[in-house]
Design goal:
The chain has 228 residues and is of the alpha/beta class. Helices cover 48% and strands 16% of the residues. It binds cytidine-5'-monophosphate.
């Protein structure tokens, strides 16, 4: 069986950075499932769907043509129906739209097979909210990454301030709190640690320290050699 490491947690907990670093270190593939929910929200906008049209968004999720690419300077490029949507993908407005469409069961179902298709040898690092609880329940290593609300808002602010001139720390704190509340209280696939997840609080840890902990946990489970 091809192994999967799941990394779930709230926005700004560092999942994206840690998942990328771990995938690079192990040579495993990477699934950024949040990007798929963000793309569904953008597909809805492109198609002019009403914001409450669940069936329309589920159909868009099933048929959307997505391409993840790396530009010559190493930066990520994302295409939706052949259109470069990189600039709009990571904004907090798109994040809020993603969190709305992600609460709909039919949208989640429509994305299941697409997410599972990322499982390819030698292994997959999967980043999201329900990777360990729903999509990859049998994963041999599940990590739930947390950090204080204040630290998470600060990290998101530093990430976004150069790309999105409209962001403020206070505004972001509010938006992140709203999004996390919606993600954690929705009836389907709510944001919560799997019962067998290792919880890591990254508030006072560096990226290197969190990656080292993840590498150690994977080695303990025989996923890769110790000291990789
Ligand atoms: O991780 P990211 O901020 O890109 O995710 C955007 C939104 O997509 C989240 O707030 C959440 O509502 C949704 N999401 C989800 N399940 C996942 C990944 C993301 O519901 N596995």
């Amino acid at each position: 069986m091809i192994p999967v490491v799941t990394i779930d947690g709230p926005s700004g907990s560092g999942k994206g950075t840690i998942s990328r670093a771990l995938a690079q270190r192990t040579g495993w593939h990477l699934l950024d499932s949040g990007a798929l929910y963000r793309l569904v929200a953008l597909a809805g906008l492109l198609e002019g769907l009403a914001v409450d049209d669940e069936a329309g968004h589920a159909a868009a999720a099933a048929r959307m043509r997505v391409c993840f690419d790396v530009a010559p300077d190493g930066s990520e490029r994302v295409f939706l129906q052949g259109q470069d949507v990189t600039a709009g993908l990571r904004t907090e407005t798109t994040g809020a739209g993603a969190s709305r469409v992600a609460a709909w069961p039919s949208v989640r179902t429509a994305l299941l097979a697409r997410q599972r298709a990322f499982v390819q040898p030698p292994g997959l690092v999967a980043d999201g909210r329900d990777m360990g609880t729903v999509v990859f329940q049998d994963a041999p290593l599940k990590i739930f990454l947390t950090a204080s609300a204040q630290e998470r808002a600060r990290r998101r602010y530093n990430q976004l301030k150069d790309k999105d001139s409209g962001v403020s720390l206070a505004g972001l704190s509010r938006e992140i709190a709203e999004r996390d509340l919606r993600d954690a209280t929705r009836p389907i696939a709510p944001l919560q640690p799997a019962t067998d997840a290792c919880v890591i609080d990254s508030t006072a840890l560096s990226v290197g320290q969190v990656v080292a902990r993840a590498v150690e946990l994977g080695a303990l489970r025989g996923l890769w050699p110790a000291g990789l």
